[in-house]
Amino acid sequence: LDIHAELSNVSETSVLQRAPIITTSEATTRQLVKDGETVVLGGFIRESESTSESGIPILRSIPLLGNLFKSTSKAVTRREIIFFITPHILRRIE
After folding, report:
1. pLDDT per position as a tens digit, 66-90
2. Is 65 inside a domain boundary?
């Protein structure tokens, strides 16, 4: 069984090009599998980081004192995608 898996992700739009940025991960493998056996294909890991700021409008923009009226939070997300593939041989009935 020849397997070629591709995972594409649309991320933010480029300001200069006004086109979406597409990131792609690929994996190719060849496995010897019996009819009905399951193959596990993993390793597609995506990590993303985001920062958000909240606070009192206007007051959070004051130089030096603004930090007293706002808070910043940072989040890191990690995702792993695993494929389970179960091939079946189709036989022609005569």
Report:
1. 888 899 999 999 988 888 999 998 8
2. yes
